[in-house]
């Protein structure tokens, strides 16, 4: 069998790991199973990545890059600020609807990484990068449309992503197309209202 350089084998193994774990869950992602998915020896996985933790780190980074790419491509060239936030919501929601396995895998890996010392930093980096990409989109769109931001762009990004993540998790547990569409529209409206200062930010009383 011809030798395949590690630089070429690496993306193949990452994709095989994503395909396997998206289909069967993170728990199924042993180095032996991932090797079998690609049709190579188990030693090839260890030679390319060193440990399963290193492979998981690469998978999480790959999924993060794909998600950020979707965020960046969601920015429309025309339209107002509300239409831009709606386009972002629609683009991300399509990934949840059309490729739910990958989005679920990203959630599963995030939970695993948050409890694994060697993966915590890449997990935190995933959130930092996703928030940063969304904040950049908010900033560029506000500048293009002349939209005044009453809140920092990062705060707007965090607000939107918090609502989107919650809605995505609900879809996995209790899917309901009609309510999901209504909630997504409400999230867009609330995000815009938060961004331009119309959302009531009066602190709730704490007892």
From TrEMBL:
PROSITE patterns: HTH_TETR_2
Ranges for domain HTH tetR-type: 7-67
Signal peptide start-end: none
Keyword vocabulary terms for this entry: DNA-binding, Transcription, Transcription regulation
Keyword DNA-binding: yes
Record has Plastid as a keyword: no
A UniProt-annotated Pfam family: TetR_C_31
Family annotation (InterPro entries): Homeodomain-like_sf, HTH-type_TetR-like_transc_reg, HTH_TetR, Tet_transcr_reg_TetR-rel_C_sf, TetR_C_31
DNA-binding region: 30-49
UniProt-recorded name of the protein: TetR/AcrR family transcriptional regulator
């Amino acid at each position: 069998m011809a030798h395949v350089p590690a630089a070429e084998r690496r993306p193949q193994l990452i994709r095989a790991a994503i395909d396997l774990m998206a289909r069967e869950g993170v728990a199924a992602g042993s180095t032996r199973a991932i090797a079998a998915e690609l049709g190579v020896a188990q030693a090839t996985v260890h030679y390319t990545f060193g440990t399963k933790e290193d492979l998981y780190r690469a998978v999480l980074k790959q999924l993060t890059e794909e998600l950020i790419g979707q965020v960046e491509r969601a920015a429309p060239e025309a339209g107002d600020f509300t239409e831009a936030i709606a386009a972002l919501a629609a683009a991300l929601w399509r990934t949840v609807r059309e490729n739910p396995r990958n989005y679920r895998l990203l959630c599963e890996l995030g939970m695993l990484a948050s409890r694994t010392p060697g993966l915590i930093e890449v997990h935190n980096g995933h959130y930092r990068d996703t928030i940063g990409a969304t904040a950049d989109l908010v900033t560029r769109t506000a500048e293009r449309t002349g939209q005044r931001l009453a809140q920092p762009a990062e705060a707007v990004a965090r607000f939107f992503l918090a609502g989107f993540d919650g809605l995505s998790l609900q879809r996995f547990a209790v899917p309901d197309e009609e309510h999901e569409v209504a909630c997504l529209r409400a999230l867009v409206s609330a995000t815009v209202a938060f961004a331009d200062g119309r959302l009531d930010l009066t602190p709730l009383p704490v007892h």
